[in-house]
Amino acid sequence: MPLSDFVDCMPTSVTIKPVTALDKYGEKTYGTAQTIKAKIMERNERLAITGGEEIVARGRAILGAISSPTVTTKDQLTLPDGSTPEILAVQPVNDEVGLHHEVIIFK
Predict the structure, then answer these.
(1) How high is the pLDDT of residue 83?
(2) Structural domain span for residue 52
């Protein structure tokens, strides 16, 4: 599916702020916010992490188009309700021409 058609299926938007710096206390400084069309799927799911431990994710955000470097787990995600859940993982999805979209798993 062409990216433009895929993005047309996104009913809402999220905001991503990339981390630009960390101070010596681990406090983050964020760059310019980017609003991206998205589909939010809220459902609890268990994820296995390193060491065999499990965590529960609250949902996923499928991002329709990325115009900057890919999202990282250090960035800030703001959902349509104004909440800023922790990003647990980012899964890039490629097609034959490269990055098509990204899936953010959040807590």
Answers:
(1) 96
(2) 3-106
CATH number at residue 101: 2.40.10
Q: Locate tokens 């798993």: which residue?
A: 105
Beta bridge partners of 39: 62
pLDDT at 41 over 80: yes
How far is Cα 58 from Cα 107, in angstroms, rounded to an integer?
A: 5
Block residue for tokens 């922790």: 86
- Reported as a single tens digit per residue, the pLDDT across 49-101 is 777 788 889 999 998 766 556 789 999 999 999 999 999 988 887 778 777 78
Provide the number of structural domains found in the chain. 1
d(Cα 77, Cα 107) in Å, to the nearest integer?
11
Sheet hosting strand 98-106, strand order edge to edge: 76-78, 12-17, 34-48, 54-63, 98-106, 87-95
